[in-house]
């Protein structure tokens, strides 16, 4: 990869990470809190995928008209299903459920471990053999996140919200791995479009079922949050991110380390949350373990 391609990859990666970083505070705006609930987490999850799915249909139709449409082969459909479960259902649903109970700054610290979780699941998927140093970083990072959750809960009681965040992080990592595996053959943009378009038979009826009975009763900021996660978090962000990964996955993946910090910063003006020193310190410690862990050697194997 030459310098021009490397620069382009880093720019696209920064765009994608910045768009994804606002997902937590925007989801918080959309679902509200337990004291002032807004849109249902189920509506936000499936509604954002339905909106992005309809846009994806139009994009795939345009690609077909241009003669550039790539149709998945039979062996790729199971991977598409795994990707859909991770990025359409698992991560956004459990994130939305969690953010009803905890601030987005809390979620940013827990999900800071997502890059390392992706690496762990990727190593298992591809039957790779991570070094002892890699596993040490994974254990240390997980321990820091557990300590943070226990500290915020006032004792070693994780609670439903933290369990939701752990499930969101795990399923999100699974979706990232599936999408990365499909990108070389289907193309960066078409991966997420195929995933979203093929999920419409599920996302459209569930969106209709959980739609608010009186939309006017929902605050405008909640609708703004929903529009953001539908257009940018679920669709346009993946265009930039997968394009960046296709250009240079190793270097670009390091940019994801700044995503938790951006989420913490966005939460202050968007949701009015307070960023305390302890939360920032935990975030920095987790990100440091992820950075070191991603530098540790992983011996290559064959995909499962």
UniProtKB/TrEMBL annotation:
A Pfam family cross-referenced in the UniProt record is EamA
- Its main subcellular localisation, reduced to a broad class, is membrane
List residues traversing the bilayer: 42-62, 82-102, 108-126, 133-151, 157-179, 191-211, 223-242, 254-271, 277-293
Which InterPro entries does its entry note?
Answer: AA-Vitamin_Transporters, EamA_dom, EmrE-like
Instruction: Name the domain of life this protein comes from.
Output: Bacteria
List, for all copies, the residue spans of the domain called EamA: 9-141, 161-291
Q: What keywords appear on the UniProt entry?
A: Membrane, Transmembrane, Transmembrane helix
Q: How does it sit in the membrane?
A: Multi-pass membrane protein
The cellular location(s) given in this protein's UniProt record come to:
Membrane
Q: Which GO terms describe its cellular component?
A: membrane
Family named by the database record: Belongs to the EamA transporter family.
UniProt protein name: Drug/metabolite transporter (DMT)-like permease
């Amino acid at each position: 990869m030459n310098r021009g391609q490397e620069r382009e990859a880093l720019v696209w990666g920064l765009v994608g990470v910045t768009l994804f970083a606002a997902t937590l505070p925007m989801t918080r705006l959309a679902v509200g809190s337990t004291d002032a609930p807004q849109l249902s987490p189920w509506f936000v999850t499936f509604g954002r995928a339905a909106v992005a799915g309809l846009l994806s249909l139009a994009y795939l139709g345009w690609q077909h008209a241009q003669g550039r449409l790539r149709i998945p082969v039979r062996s790729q459909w199971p991977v598409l299903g795994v990707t859909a479960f991770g990025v359409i259902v698992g991560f956004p649903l459990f994130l939305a459920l969690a953010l009803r109970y905890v601030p987005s700054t809390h979620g940013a610290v827990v999900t800071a471990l997502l890059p390392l979780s992706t690496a762990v699941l990727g190593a298992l998927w591809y039957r790779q053999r991570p070094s002892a140093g890699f596993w040490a970083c994974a254990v240390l990072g997980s321990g820091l996140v557990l300590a943070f959750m226990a500290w915020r809960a006032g004792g070693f009681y994780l609670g439903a919200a933290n369990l939701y965040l752990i499930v969101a992080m795990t399923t999100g990592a699974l979706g990232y791995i599936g999408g990365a595996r499909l990108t070389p053959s289907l193309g960066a943009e078409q991966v997420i479009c195929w995933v979203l378009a093929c999920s419409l038979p599920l996302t459209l009826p569930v969106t209709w079922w959980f739609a608010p009975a009186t939309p006017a009763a929902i605050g405008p900021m909640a609708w703004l949050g929903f529009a953001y996660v539908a257009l940018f978090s679920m669709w346009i962000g993946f265009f930039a991110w997968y394009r960046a990964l296709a250009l240079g996955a190793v270097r670009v993946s390091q940019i994801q380390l700044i995503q938790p910090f951006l989420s913490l910063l966005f939460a202050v003006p968007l949701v009015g949350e307070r960023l305390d020193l302890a939360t920032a310190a935990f975030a920095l410690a987790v990100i440091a373990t992820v950075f070191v862990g991603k530098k540790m050697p992983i011996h290559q194997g064959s995909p499962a």
